[in-house]
Predict the 3D structure of the following.
Amino acid sequence: MAIIFWKIACKILGIKIPGKEKWQSFFLGKSGIEIGGPSALFKSKGYLPLYPLVQSLDGVNFSNATVWEGKLSEGLHYKYEDKTGYQYIAEGSSLPVIGDAAYDFVLSCNNLEHIANPIGALLEWKRIIKKNGAVLLVLPNKFANFDHNRPYTSIAHLVDDFKNNRDENDLTHLEEVLKLHDLKRDPQAGDYQNFRERCADNYLNRCIHHHVFNQDLLQQLCSYCDMEVTLQFSNKTDHFILAVKK
């Protein structure tokens, strides 16, 4: 679905990212890891082509079977276009198997909203990149999807989740999601009863959007994690932000 969506969006909306070469410069010839990919957005014909530029790319997915990628297995199986990297099966927010400063960059596209503790995740991604390494976050613009009725999350809320060490069993946001999720924009969720059952089983499927982001929140998130925001951009469908490890 994601691949189809991005092909249609790019063609119909004619969307282009300004200063694309600046964004790409942080990844040219570098080695990195993608959390929750691969992503159509980064393909050679995608919105921000990065896959053709990188030296190598590994991937992390939370399970051997996901709603988005189907069946997966750990090992040299991470396929991004015509290239292959190492596929980790692990929580994206907890990567003890990966050493400090192991990579030049981290990619996360339409992924962080599915993680219960975004600050914990970003600090972990910061740990595994080198000094001056980059983290590229792409988060959905709520007005283009089923979150449009929900309020933006506050940085205080994210800090509270971090201090309380929320993990992926957390259903703190379930009531808000059930009340404000627009099922008309989410046909895959089925009717309300199916949606409710899916949400209650979120640990296995990870379909819930725990938080709703805008650029202000993303800047505050990066600042809290002591990362320098270098580039940022929003369009009708997504918010982009690139932060560098000091």
The chain has one domain: 2-145+210-245. The beta strands are 31-35, 56-61, 65-66, 70-71, 75-80, 83-89, 103-109, 129-140, 227-234, 238-245.
